[in-house]
């Protein structure tokens, strides 16, 4: 396979979306697979939507996912700068060349005039196509218009022919001549439009394979014509199918997180995200579903990118995460757990590796790091206000004429004398079970409810050692004093 140079050119408007992450991933994989370059370029020419902090966020999210680049705004490279706002002079040069060659022309319609043209086309049930003036305006006309305060833009002079794109996923896609028109390449503020800047940068940065969302497929004719007009080579294309929610609607925030950072914050592993994202619109065949980044690079071929919409299934992603956690080494989990703690406010101290390892072990079977907090966070929060679950209180304390309360009182006394290790606590509980000839639950559950408010927590020995003796006894006393809603 030839070396394919790919790129990820986000417009910095916020956090990285899962759709953007998938695009970045595929571009990265393709470059790594073929030994080409992967370029990160910031397309920040839309000043109205620009959010400067978004660049750092996107870089951080990509780093977290393990997607790296060979050229980019943070590391530089032979084609720097990698922010379009720093390349305006380059685009201006090309605009001038296109104007001089008669392949572009000035236009100075006001938004109201354009609206009126669109409305009358609509009324006539015609597609709106910008009416090219004849003769074309001169530089003097443009200057006069600017003096009059009109917006002066530059439009591409569209040759008016069918344009066919050869796409590795969608095949040959043709835009008929009558649907092409003289689109804008330079805006009134002298900034290039997305089309112009994107095409120039891809060419100058040596990009020869373009992977991006299907939503850009309908724009590619413009890019092909611009390339021809500027004498650039045509790259290969692979448009990636749209990502929908499970109901087949456009994926949106309405039914949950869509940003990569939100999944990181919710306690997902990047390796599970990568694995799942790769399957959005692609599959390796042979029913293979689980793979690492290295395996993905090995397995990936654009021929297996599909045309049908992909489905973002949150349950499936959670299942992938659960499996990835089960398969990960403790060292890996420790590293990822510390990352999770570093970006979340939790009562769990993040600087004690031995404690964190114990917490990971005590919570085996967790699906996300957030599960650990839900189940064990309360044990590390000295000021926790315990909310006793009525069902748990009823079942484990109140039932049988308050047998649990009686047990709690006995435990309060006996725990006081107990050595505070998992083994000693477990032994004490076993002894009590034997003396009363009752099952574990009748002893362990009352304490569990007393110290956490719930019937679920790590093993009782772990639960109480995580808490410490003082907190355990205090919480038992508080519970006894509260004797919450028993009936
Ligand atoms: N800046 C565009 C975007 O953010 C890039 C589209 C492309 O890949 O050509 O979506």
Keywords:
487 residues, mainly alpha, Rossmann fold, Glutamyl-tRNA Synthetase, domain 2, Arc Repressor Mutant, subunit A, 3 domains, three-stranded antiparallel sheet, two-stranded parallel ribbon, 19 helices, 11 strands, binds glutamic acid
Structure write-up:
The radius of gyration is 31 Å and the shape is elongated. The protein has 19 helices and eleven strands. The longest helix has 27 residues, at about 390-415. The strands form five sheets. It has a three-stranded antiparallel β-sheet. With about 475 residues, the chain is mainly alpha-helical. Glutamic acid binds near residues 9 and 216.
Quaternary structure: single chain
The structural class is mainly alpha
Q: Name the average pLDDT.
A: 95
Count of discrete alpha- or pi-helical segments spanning 4 or more residues? 19
Largest sheet: 3 strands, antiparallel
Number of domains: 3
Please provide a brief summary of the model.
This protein is mainly alpha-helical and 487 residues long. The chain is 47% helix and 8% strand.
Write the SSE topology.
Elements: E1 6-8, H1 18-34, E2 38-40, H2 52-65, H3 88-100, E3 104-107, H4 111-123, H5 139-147, E4 153-156, E5 163-167, E6 171-175, E7 184-186, H6 194-204, E8 209-213, H7 220-230, E9 236-240, E10 243-244, H8 260-265, H9 270-278, H10 293-299, E11 310-311, H11 314-327, H12 330-342, H13 353-362, H14 369-376, H15 390-416, H16 422-436, H17 441-452, H18 460-467, H19 469-482
Parallel strand pairs: 1-2, 8-9, 10-11
Antiparallel strand pairs: 3-4, 4-7, 5-6
Helix pairs in contact: 1-10, 6-7, 9-11, 12-13, 15-17, 15-19, 16-18, 17-19
């Amino acid at each position: 396979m030839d070396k394919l140079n790919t790129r990820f050119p986000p417009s910095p408007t916020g956090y990285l979306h899962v759709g953007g992450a998938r695009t970045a991933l595929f571009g990265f994989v393709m470059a790594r697979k073929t030994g080409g370059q992967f370029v990160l370029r910031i397309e920040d020419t839309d000043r109205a939507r620009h959010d400067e902090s978004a660049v750092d966020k996107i870089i951080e999210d990509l780093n977290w996912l393990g997607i790296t680049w060979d050229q980019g705004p943070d590391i530089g490279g032979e084609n720097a700068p990698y922010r379009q706002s720093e390349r305006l002079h380059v685009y201006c040069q090309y605009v001038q060349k296109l104007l001089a060659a008669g392949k572009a022309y000035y236009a100075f319609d006001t938004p109201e005039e354009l609206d009126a043209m669109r409305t009358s086309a609509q009324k006539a049930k015609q597609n709106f196509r910008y009416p090219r003036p004849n003769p074309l305006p001169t530089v003097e006309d443009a200057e006069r218009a600017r003096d009059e305060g009109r917006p002066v833009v530059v439009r591409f002079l569209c040759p008016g022919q069918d344009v066919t794109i050869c796409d590795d996923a969608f095949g040959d896609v043709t835009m008929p001549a009558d649907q092409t028109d003289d689109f804008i390449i330079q805006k009134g503020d002298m900034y290039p439009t997305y089309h112009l800047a994107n095409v120039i940068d891809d060419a100058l940065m040596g990009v020869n394979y373009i992977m991006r969302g299907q939503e850009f497929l309908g724009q590619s004719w413009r890019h092909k014509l611009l390339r021809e007009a500027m004498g650039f080579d045509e790259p290969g294309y692979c448009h990636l199918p749209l990502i929908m929610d499970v109901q087949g609607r456009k994926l949106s925030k309405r039914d949950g997180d869509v940003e990569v950072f939100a999944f990181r914050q919710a306690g997902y592993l990047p390796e599970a995200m990568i694995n799942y994202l790769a399957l959005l619109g692609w599959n390796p065949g042979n029913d293979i579903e689980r793979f690492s980044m290295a395996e993905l690079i090995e397995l990936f071929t654009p021929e297996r990118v599909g045309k049908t919409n992909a489905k973002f299934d949150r349950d499936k992603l959670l299942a992938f995460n659960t499996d990835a956690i089960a398969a990960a080494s403790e060292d890996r989990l420790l590293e990822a757990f510390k990352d999770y703690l570093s970006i979340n406010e939790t009562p769990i101290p993040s600087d004690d590796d031995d404690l964190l390892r114990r917490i990971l072990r005590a919570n085996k079977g967790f699906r996300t790091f957030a599960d650990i907090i839900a189940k064990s966070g309360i044990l590390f929060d000295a000021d926790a206000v315990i909310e006793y679950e009525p069902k748990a209180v009823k079942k484990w304390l109140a039932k049988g004429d308050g047998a649990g309360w009686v047990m709690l009182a006995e435990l309060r006394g006996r725990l006081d004398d107990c050595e505070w290790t998992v083994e000693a606590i477990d032994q004490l509980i076993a002894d009590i079970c034997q003396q009363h000839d009752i099952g574990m639950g009748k002893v362990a559950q009352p304490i569990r409810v007393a110290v956490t408010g719930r019937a679920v927590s790590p093993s009782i020995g772990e639960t109480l050692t995580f808490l410490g003796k003082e907190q355990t006894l205090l919480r038992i006393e508080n519970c006894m004093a509260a004797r919450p809603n028993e009936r």
